[in-house]
Amino acid sequence: MKLVAHANNILTADGRRYRCALGRSGIVAASAKREGDGASPAGIWRVRRALYRADRLDRPQTALPLQVIEADDGWCDAPEDPAYNRPVRMPWPASHEVMARADGLYDVVVVLGHNDDPPVPGAGSAIFFHCASAGYKPTEGCVAVALPDMLTLLALMTPQGTLEISATPAPLEDEL
Question: Domain total for the chain?
Answer without folding.
Answer: 1
